[in-house]
Each structure stands twice: as structure tokens, then as C-alpha cells.
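Hi X.,

You mentioned you wanted examples for the new student's onboarding notes, showing what a folding record looks like when two proteins sit in one file. Here is a clean example. The first protein comes first, with its sequence line followed by its C-alpha cells.
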Amino acid sequence: MTIPQYYKDAGLTHFSASQLNKPVANWIFDYLYLDYSRRRNIKVGYNAALGTNAHNAIQAVLCHGQSVEDAIKDAVMGIEFHDSPTSELTEKRDKFIEILPDMVNNGVNLLAEQFGGAEDERRIELPMEGIDVPIVGFIDLVASDSFLEIKTKAARQGAVKKDGTRGWTKGSLPAKPEFYHLSQVAIYWKATGLTPHIAYVAAHDAVLFSPDNCDELSQDYLEYCLEDMRGKAMRRQNLLKLSTDPKVLAGLVDPDFNHPFYWDEETKDEARELWKI
């Protein structure tokens, strides 16, 4: 696709599922206000580190034949040396290091038969009607006529007890895939024509969804998800046609700074300056 000048002026060549699933205000700040290097250097917490390292370990075993033991060692090291925001507690890091081996084992045991020897990180590019740039993504695992996205569910800290300590609750496995994940999978499905699968992996168990056991992975529902994503892309495109200046666009969109997890703590003050009217 030929990239229109207004996208180039915004520093954009494509959309991704992660872009489109962000609230519009966060997207404006992350993709129009911050440049690529600053965006890449934003520190993420231990939850993201757990997900990334568990995911990488499962891929290493299934796709590249690494032993489970070595994959877990590498994953643990990834969490140990993760540069987390200063607000993150080391007790979370220690808990995640404790549960990570069980997560990896559960994921490998669940997926080895169907996705052992799979290709990992296949790049896809999907044009959408009326959208002037493609949707780009990378599929976790591709095997023969199927593909898989892996999602992790971390343990969560409970409320403070009377003695001042805090326990942990299990990472909750969903009864059906989450909508944001279905939207991502719908893009990959449309781009490849392969049968979609989503796995959720936690320390105590893992579950695999496919069209055989999940109505939300049917063709009709995935088409619904695609149209939702196209709408999100169109709204962003319409904003870019008005202006590629983040200060101008900030005057059109509510930032919702009180939301509990939309905004990164290390950049929230800077975002507040952008939204001053």
C-alpha cells in the first residue's frame, strides 16, 4: 500500500492490534506525541515481564526444541534482570519467579501435541476497507492449518491482612476468550485463513480455545470483531485527517487520567501537560 502523506507526517506506516485496542487518548500520547525510541523505552511492570518471559519460554520449547529446564532458566533470568518501574515491589518479582516454572510447564503440556514444531512470530499484513494503511502483526505460533495466540494470567496480590501481610490469588482463567484478544486473533484469521486458537496459561492450569469449543471463534463472531477493529482504525484515521499535531488532538479527546491502569505512571505527568487546555 502507498502510505498517504498525512500518515507519514504522523510518523505512522501501519496500525496494529495493540494500537487499536488502546484508548484513543493513550494512542495519541504513545504514537503521536512520543517518538519511537521513547515509546520503546517506557518501563513496564513485572506482570508484562512475566507474560513475555513465559511466552518466550513456551515458544522456545515448542518451536526451537529447547529443553523445558533451559527455557525456564532463561525466563527466570529475564524476570530477575527486568528493569521495572520503581513503584513495583520486589515481592511481586519474587512471586512471579516462583510461579513461572509451573506456567511454562502447563503451557507446554497443553500445546505440545498440536503445536510442537510450529513456526513462531509469523508476520502478517491485512488491508481493511477504507483504511489507508495496513494492519500489521506477528502470530505467536503457526502449525499446518492452525495458528495460536498465547496469553498469560498472573497471580494477583490480595488485600492487606490484619497482620500487615498480603496473600496471593490464582491467575483466573477465563470461561471464554477476552474481547481484545479475539479482536487481535480476528485480524490474524482474516490475513491467513488459518483456524484460530487462543491459549490462556496460569500457574495452576491452562486452557485452549478453538472453534470446536468456543462460539466466539466462529466465522460470524470474528467478522464482528474485525468490523469493530475497522471502526477503531477509521476513528483514528479521521483524527489524523483533521491534524497530526498531538496538542490539537488532545483538545478533542478526554484523557481519563483517573482510570486505574490506562496511563503509565512514569509518563502521566508529561501527558497531563499535553492535555492542558
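Then the second protein repeats the pattern, sequence line and then C-alpha cells:
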Amino acid sequence: MLVEDEASLAHGLEFNLSEEGYVVDWAADGKIALEKFEKNEYDLIILDIMLPYFDGFEIAEIVRKKLPRLPILILTARGEALDKLRGLKLGADDYLTKPFNLDELLLRVKGMLRRQSWYNATTDLSVKVSFGDNEVDFSTLQAKNGKSNFQLTQMEATVLKYLMENKNRIISRKELLKNVWHLNDDIETRTVDNFVMRLRKYFEDNPSQPKYFQSIRSSGYRFVDSI
């Protein structure tokens, strides 16, 4: 579903996505988007922020409560860091700031859909894993940190899953972009760092001094499950 109130942009995106083989359902405002969401099933939502009736933040929150695994890509003219972080915090998987490059958008859409298949693939990880006082069930996306239970989004679980499958190894941002986001490693984005920050907030006793999700200066990140 494409949620965009600017008709000319929406028609252009609809055309180009259709040319790539996707079936696109356009919603011109937040009210229509929520009505369509309740009636239909989607593989991905492309979501503008500034919308009539319900804004993109409200829609993302509603979608996430019902379908934690449905990929959400935010398209927004808001370039402020706080708006990007708010969108990611509410469960969006990634964002693009208008004006954006069409080829990059198509790559991100393709990558998000491929990631769903990768996430569901059989891996060496058990469905349920634990480290320290933390537990994660990758089949339900349920997690707990010793103090509370909470729900991960599929993107959060995917990043965690990749880091855990490669524990004790330094993983660069470029590797994460390529193998988790399925994006070219020459694309500049802070999304990787934002998601690692979220994992630290969930699972670290002191996120400013992480034990499990370590930063390796000028290299990337490393997951360590035994301290």
C-alpha cells in the first residue's frame, strides 16, 4: 500500500512500482489508509508522514500493534533527526527523505521484501535464544529483558538475528546494509546506527556502556553474548 496525499507524486510512484511488477494500492489520506489496512493484506507499506486525518506516525503505531512483521518504509519531507527517530521508534523499518532518488526507493522496496524471506529462512539459531537476563522468541517476536516483556518489530528482530548469528565477529555498517537491508553499501544512512541504539535500549543494563552490542571504532559492531 502506498500512502501519499500528493497526487502527482503518488501516480508517479504507482507507475514505477507497477513497472517493477508490484501491485500497488494507493491511499490518498490517513483515513483511507486505515480503512484499506483493516480490509486488505499487504506485503509492505510506503507511508508519508504529513497526511490528512491521521498522520504517518499514528498509522505506523496502529499497524505495528496489529502486525509487527509488516515492513514499513517512511517517505517524508521532514528531514529532522527527531522525526526520523520517532518514525523508527514507532516501528518503521526505514525512511527516505523527500526529495528522494527513485532508484534508491526501488532498491529499498526490493530489499525489504527480500528480507522477509531471509528472516523466515531456517538458520542455526534456535527459535528461542537468551543472553544475560534477556530472552527472545524469534517465532513470535516476543522478548523480555528481566524487567519487562515487549514486542520487537521484524526489522529489530532481523538486525538482532544477524548480529547473533555472527557473534564475536566485527560486522561493518556496509555488511549490515548489504545483508540485512539489502542495500548498496555506498548509500549513506544512519538507519543501522539507530537500530543498534534501539537494541541497546531494550537489552543493555546501561545503554551508554553496552556489554552485548559493542561499537568497534571505525569498523562497525560486534555482538558478544558472554561477559
